[in-house]
Amino acid sequence: MDKKSELIVITKSKDLCAYIITATGKSPKQFRFTFVSRLQNLSLDMIEKIYYANELYIGKDSDSHKERLSLQHQALTTCKLIAYLSEMAMTHKCILPKQYEQIAKQTTDCSRLIGAWINSDKKRMPS
Predict the structure, then answer these.
(1) What is the model's pLDDT at position 73?
(2) Residue 89: inside a domain
(3) Tens of pLDDT along 53-89?
(4) Within a domain: 10
(5) Is 13 within 8 Å of 51 (Cβ atoms)?
(6) SS3 of residue 7 by DSSP
(7) Overall number of domains in the chain
């Protein structure tokens, strides 16, 4: 898929996911089934929710706007969970502080983009 035609929120979420997979790749094995798998799976889940939301047709006669809004909010909540778990992972020395800072920056960016997308859709949706 051409990155130029993707929504910026999809691109940024993919970047976050790729970074999480890289950052957790050398984490201590004792964290493999706690922080590592949770962070990786949540980042993939966030992308999945964004894709599903983006694929829903929103038109005047469509009721899918509620489902889209729900998926967008789920993606936003998942992003917040990633931020929290990455902080916990740093606290327990699963990831380095610099890695946590990078994840925190990227989750903030993703949260803002998802929030802006939600607000944009609310303005377009029929009342």
Answers:
(1) 98
(2) yes
(3) 999 877 766 678 889 999 999 999 999 999 999 999 9
(4) no
(5) no
(6) coil
(7) 1
Cβ contact 46:106 at 8 Å = no
Q: Which residues, including other chains, have CB under 8 Å from residue 11's CB and lie 6 or more apart?
A: 3
The range of the structural domain enclosing residue 101 comes to: 34-56+69-127
* CATH code of 100's domain: 1.20.1440.60
Cα Rg of the chain (Å, integer): 16
**Is residue 49 one of the residues assigned to a domain?**
yes
SS3 call for 3? helix
* Token pair belonging to 2: 């051409």
Mean pLDDT of the region 101-122? 96
For tokens 């004792």, what's the residue? Answer: 30
The pTM is what? Answer: 0.90
d(CA 23, CA 3): 23
Q: Which two tokens stand for residue 74?
A: 């789920």
Cα torsion 119, 48, 107, 2: sign: negative
- Rounded Cα distance, 13 and 16, in Å: 5
